[in-house]
């Protein structure tokens, strides 16, 4: 198990900084996710850790070893990419053995390790099959075995599941997590899929324009986003403009066009009360009721969509459109055009200036 330290990495392509002074530390055995909008630099960061990209400034350390100038094959990382890059005409076992042949591992040892790697992804009974005769999910398992067989110091994954259908993605997500934990691997995983990140990551970083916007465990980043960018990138949210009426530590009473309610500051609040603030409330973060309480705002139900386990409502309050999700909608019988009361349970004051 190694720690991966990224120290002030900068990488420019022409005048564009794909990485702009990025620093972070990934703990030994941690499953760390990089996500963010397209072009934010996550692949460049992963490729710099792998050794495919040489940074203009900054360092990459594996524990205390500076690997910034070390070529890819000497870093001893296992990699799994979007295109599995397996040889379709070779057997599963040959595909997995390839990295070991390159390292000059003797045949008997090779065979043993290939068997172990295939067993760890539950593909041991497919060793002699040709890659072309496997399903997408099975091919993905072989790609994972191939990354593991070299006993990597860290596992680097770039959108490894994006070629799979939804059901297989779910299955492979937990499979990748299981394998990483079983082997105690430090892993860095790039994805577009925020659900994948929330459900699998120990910690994650949301990137934007070559910088880290926020780092934290999934629940922290989801429930306490620091900025509009993070709040909107990880899941859906309602953003309301407001003014701070009063404040006691992190708790504040904010007045918005939709009404007054309490919200909690996240990170360092840069704005002053006069400038106003932005508040984020997740659609599932409302308590909907027929009668108002102290902290609730009156809102008229405009539309509702029944989705089985929950309903997706749209309310208006003081000219603001508000999205709300309600679990077990069949227990509630909401009526379009009627007034209800919405209480924000998890409102967060963001750091951005409106
Ligand atoms: N080899 C390259 N030459 C020139 N520009 C590049 C190169 N690689 C990346 N870039 C640019 O650097 C920026 C970051 O790219 P990167 O691939 O790291 O983003 P990303 O977050 O992984 O995006 P995506 O989610 O679309 O894969 C982008 O603006 C991209 O166009």
Short descriptors:
six-stranded mixed β-sheet, OB fold (Dihydrolipoamide Acetyltransferase, E2P), 36% strand, Rossmann fold, five-stranded mixed barrel, alpha+beta, single chain, 2 domains, Iron(III) transport system ATP-binding protein, 354 residues, 24% helix, binds adenosine-5'-triphosphate
Descriptive notes:
This protein has helices at 42-50, 92-102, 107-120, 136-149, 166-183, 194-200, 218-223, 228-233, and strands at 4-13, 16-26, 31-35, 57-62, 65-66, 77-81, 154-158, 186-190, 203-208, 211-216, 238-248, 251-256, 259-265, 277-281, 286-289, 297-306, 310-317, 320-327, 339-344, 348-349. It is an alpha+beta fold and 354 residues long. It has two domains: 4-223, P-loop containing nucleotide triphosphate hydrolases (Rossmann fold); 236-349, OB fold (Dihydrolipoamide Acetyltransferase, E2P) (Beta Barrel), CATH 2.40.50. The strands form four sheets. The protein has a six-stranded mixed beta sheet, sandwiched between helices. The protein has a five-stranded mixed barrel with strand order 11-12-13-20-14. It has a five-stranded antiparallel beta sheet with strand order 15-19-16-17-18, with no helix packed on it. A hairpin with a 2-residue loop joins strand 12 and strand 13. The two termini are 44 Å apart. The relative contact order is 0.12. It holds the Pfam family ABC_tran.
Strand order of the largest sheet: 6-7-8-3-9-10
From the 3D coordinates, which CATH architecture of the largest domain would you assign?
3-Layer(aba) Sandwich
Bin the helical content: 10-25%
Number of strands: 20
Q: How confident overall, as mean pLDDT?
A: 92
Poorly predicted regions are none
Strand content: 35-45%
The set of bound ligands, ions and cofactors reads: adenosine-5'-triphosphate
CATH class of the largest domain: Alpha Beta
Secondary-structure-based class equals alpha+beta
General shape: globular
State the domain count.
2
Q: In the CATH hierarchy, what is the superfamily of the largest domain?
A: P-loop containing nucleotide triphosphate hydrolases
> What is the alpha-carbon Rg in Å?
24 Å
- Kindly identify the CATH topology of the largest domain: Rossmann fold
| Total of DSSP H or I helical runs spanning 4+ residues | 8
């Amino acid at each position: 198990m190694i720690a991966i330290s990224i120290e002030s990495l900068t990488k420019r392509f022409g005048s564009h900084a794909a990485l702009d002074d990025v620093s972070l530390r990934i703990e030994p055995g941690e499953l760390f996710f990089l996500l963010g909008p397209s072009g934010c630099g996550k692949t460049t960061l992963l490729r710099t850790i792998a050794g495919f990209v040489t940074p203009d400034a900054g360092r990459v350390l594996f524990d205390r070893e500076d690997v910034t100038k070390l070529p890819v094959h000497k870093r001893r990382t296992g990699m799994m990419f979007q295109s599995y890059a397996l040889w379709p005409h070779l057997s599963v076992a040959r595909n997995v053995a390839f990295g070991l042949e390159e390292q000059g591992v003797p045949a008997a040892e090779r065979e043993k390790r290939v068997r172990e790697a295939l067993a760890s992804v539950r593909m041991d009974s497919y060793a002699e099959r040709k890659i072309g005769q496997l399903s997408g999910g099975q091919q993905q398992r072989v790609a994972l075995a191939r990354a593991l067989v070299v006993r990597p110091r860290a596992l680097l994954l770039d959108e490894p599941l994006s070629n799979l259908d939804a059901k297989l993605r779910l299955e492979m997500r937990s499979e990748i997590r299981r394998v990483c934990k079983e082997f105690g691997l430090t892993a860095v995983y790039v994805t577009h899929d925020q659900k994948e990140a929330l459900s699998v990551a120990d910690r994650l970083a949301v990137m934007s324009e070559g910088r880290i916007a926020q780092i934290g465990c999934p629940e922290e980043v989801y429930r306490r986003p620091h900025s509009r960018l993070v709040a909107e990138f990880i899941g859906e949210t309602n953003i309301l403009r407001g003014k701070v009426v009063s404040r006691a530590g992190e708790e504040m009473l904010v007045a918005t066009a939709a009404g007054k309610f309490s919200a909690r500051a996240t990170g360092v609040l840069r704005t002053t009360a006069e400038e106003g603030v932005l508040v984020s409330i997740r659609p599932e973060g409302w308590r909907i009721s027929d009668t108002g309480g102290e902290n609730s705002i009156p809102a008229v139900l405009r539309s509702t969509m029944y989705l089985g386990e929950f309903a997706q409502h749209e309310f208006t309050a003081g000219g603001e459109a508000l999205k709300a999700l309600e679990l077990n909608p069949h227990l509630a019988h909401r009526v379009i055009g009627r007034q209800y009361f919405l209480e924000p349970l998890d409102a967060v004051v963001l750091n951005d200036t409106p």
